[in-house]
Structures are given as structure tokens and as C-alpha cells.
Design brief:
With 370 residues, this protein is mainly α. The protein contains ten helices and nine strands. The strands form four sheets. It has a three-stranded antiparallel sheet. Strands 3-4 form a two-stranded antiparallel ribbon. It has a two-stranded antiparallel ribbon with strand order 6-7.
């Protein structure tokens, strides 16, 4: 589906010759050069202008207002491929959306049928534990106490128990102990400056704008300008404070030797926002988004890269064609080698037995569980 949308600065007229492309619901009776250009472009690319095809009131067709607040135009349009013409259900503008601009928000309702394969096995349960607390002494002792008590209860289980069931019990005990001692990690706020105060200024600006639309008096104009100015100053100061704290954070992590967060913060400013994509390219260069198709693509790629069957042939050829570089050993050399192996084995066994005895005696003297 091809969708083209934006500010075309084009007034499209209601002419019968343009009806297959724009229909008969345009706001304007006459058009200028850009209107003819957009119609010619849409016709050449097999597109249609959907923003002029729905019977709405005129104030739901406005997309831009002249600075005098009395003259309105429909110059923002949405174009879609003719093949998917019936998939767009409605297009209209919303004057109540506050973007602090002279353009109105144009919204299109698109209906599309997508085949979604739900992978229950790959779902994330949403629980992330705050593992940084394990560095604290009190938290570490609490976790040790919890995990010791829970695993002590598992010692009475029989050896004939199913391995899967035993693993579920062990996993559940570990997760319960971690949850009680470390707690869950709080979700990261990507925009902490977007707080209640920000919403208050945004609501004031929206109300002032709606008053200006309904009543075009000079007092409402001055009120809207003042609210816009105050809101812009507040937003700029909030963002500056947020960026300043973000910049100072790597320095703090460097002082306390938190290397992981230090490099993560440096990477954030160096690379910027990197969205995650679950798509790969196939052999022809097209994008593949299906889960099973992605696995098949990676399987095919690694089978080609790691295909080393020809190495076996080379080694087999080398074995048959080359002469041995080392002469065969005699019987006396075999006996000497066996005696050395036996001596080293006895020495290692003695050392291991001594270490185990020392460990058991140390635990018995300290009174700690082994």
C-alpha cells in the first residue's frame, strides 16, 4: 500500500474532468497551478486524492488558516494507491488537536487486514528485577537468607521426581526469592520532562486556541499569543534541564566506576535513537517480517557460510598422500610415558583429597552450612 501525505500547498477544484481522481467534495471551487500538478501526479502514479472524497462540513475540511484567522484553505492532502481505494474509511481535519501551528491535524482511518502470527513462546512476561541492588550488603544477605530457606525445602523431594517438574520448582523458588529481596525494576521514562506541569500548559494553550477560533476578538488574540509564549519558554527550560542532567550522568557514572551505564550514556549521545527492527533482507533484497521466514533466512545464510564439507576431503587427501613426520615410538618409550601419566594422576588425587579435607575442617570449625 502506497500512501503519500503532507502539505502540498495545492487547492484542488471541483471539475468533472478531475472526478475520477478527486471526486466532488473539495473545499474550493477553483484551483491554481499546484492543484493541477497534484492531479497530474496522482493520475500518472495511479493514485487518488482521498482527502477530497468525503462529505464533511467545511470547517472539517480546513487544513490551513491564513494569519487573519478568517481565510481557510484545504492544501494538506492524503493520496493513496487506487488499488487500495476502499481501505480508507474517512479523512477529515481536527481543529481541537493542539500542535501550536497554523495547520490543522488531518486524520485518515485506514482499514487493513494483516496476518499476525502470535508467538506465545517468545512473549516477554514484563518482569525485570533490579539486579543492581545485589551490590548492597543488606539486600545480598536478605537474598541469601531467602534462597537458602527455599532450597532447604527442596531437599526432602524424592529422586524419582520428573526433571521438568523439579526445574519448575527450582525456577519458581529463585524468582520468588529475587522478587522479595530485589524487587522489580521500574520502567524507564523516556521523557521525564513530560509531567503534569507540561500538560497544564498544553491544556491552557489548547483552550486559548479554541477561544480564538470561536471568538476572533483582539483580547483572545493577545491571550493566545501570551499563552503560546509562556508555554514555549517552559518547554524549552524543561528540555534544557533534562539534557543537562543527561549529560552530567556519564560523569557521575565515571566517578563511581559504573562502566556499563557510562558507555551506555556515551552511546546514547553518539548514536542517537536506534529503533529496533524485526525484519531481514531475503536473497532478492526484499524485506521479510514473518517470524518463520526470518528463521529460515538465517538458517539458509549460516548453512552457506559454515558449509565446510570440502575441508574433510582436503584432510582425507592429505592423510593419504603425505608421509608421517614423526617416527614410530618404541616399547620402552611407551612404558616411560605410562609411568609419567600414573605418577601425575596420583599426585593430582593427593592434592584434591587434601583440599577437600581442609574445606570440611574449615566449615566444621566455622559452623556454616556446607
Amino acid at each position: 500500500m502506497k500512501i503519500l501525505l503532507g502539505d502540498f500547498n495545492a487547492k484542488v477544484e471541483r471539475e468533472n474532468i478531475f472526478k475520477p481522481t478527486i471526486d466532488n467534495e473539495s473545499l474550493h471551487q477553483d484551483s491554481h497551478g499546484n492543484g493541477v500538478r497534484i492531479v497530474n501526479f496522482a493520475t500518472s502514479k495511479n493514485l487518488v486524492v482521498k482527502s477530497t472524497m468525503y462529505p464533511h462540513r467545511n470547517f472539517h475540511k480546513y487544513t490551513w488558516t491564513f494569519p487573519d484567522w478568517n481565510t481557510h484553505y484545504q492544501i494538506d492532502h492524503i493520496l493513496i494507491d487506487r488499488r487500495w481505494l476502499s481501505r480508507v474509511l474517512d479523512v477529515r481535519s481536527f481543529r481541537g488537536a493542539d500542535w501550536d501551528t497554523d495547520h490543522y491535524l488531518v486524520v485518515a482511518k485506514v482499514r487493513e487486514r494483516l496476518a499476525v502470527i502470535k508467538q506465545a513462546a517468545h512473549r516477554f512476561d514484563g518482569e525485570r528485577f533490579n539486579l543492581r541492588k545485589i551490590c548492597e550488603l543488606e539486600v545480598r544477605k536478605k537474598y541469601q537468607f531467602e534462597i537458602t530457606n527455599r532450597f532447604a525445602a527442596l531437599e526432602n523431594l524424592s529422586n524419582d521426581e520428573d526433571n521438568n517438574r523439579a526445574w519448575k520448582n527450582i525456577k519458581g523458588n529463585i524468582k520468588t526469592s529475587v522478587k522479595k529481596s530485589l524487587c522489580l525494576q521500574e520502567l524507564k521514562q523516556h521523557k521525564p520532562w513530560f509531567d503534569e506541569e507540561y500538560l497544564g500548559f498544553s491544556d491552557q494553550r489548547k483552550q486559548a486556541k479554541m477561544q480564538r477560533i470561536h471568538d476572533q476578538s483582539q483580547s483572545n488574540v493577545d491571550n493566545l499569543n501570551n499563552v503560546r509564549r509562556d508555554a514555549s519558554r517552559h518547554f524549552r527550560s524543561k528540555k534544557k534541564a533534562y539534557l543537562k542532567a543527561k549529560i552530567e550522568k556519564p560523569g557521575t557514572n565515571s566517578k563511581i566506576k559504573n562502566i556499563r551505564d557510562l558507555y551506555r550514556g556515551i552511546s546514547y549521545f553518539k548514536k542517537g535513537y536506534q529503533p529496533r527492527t524485526n525484519t531481514v533482507k531475503d536473497d532478492k533484497g526484499g524485506l521479510v517480517a514473518d517470524f518463520h521466514s526470518i528463521l529460515a533466512r538465517w538458517r539458509n545464510n549460516f548453512s552457506q557460510i559454515m558449509n565446510v564439507r570440502w575441508v574433510n576431503d582436503v584432510r582425507q587427501t592429505e592423510i593419504h598422500t603425505t608421509e608421517p613426520l614423526v617416527p614410530e615410538s618404541s616399547a620402552s618409550e611407551f612404558e616411560i610415558a605410562i609411568e609419567k601419566v600414573w605418577f601425575e594422576t596420583r599426585r593430582c588425587s593427593t592434592i584434591i583429597a587434601f583440599q577437600l579435607c581442609f574445606r570440611v575442617s574449615h566449615l566444621e570449625g566455622s559452623g556454616k552450612p556446607g
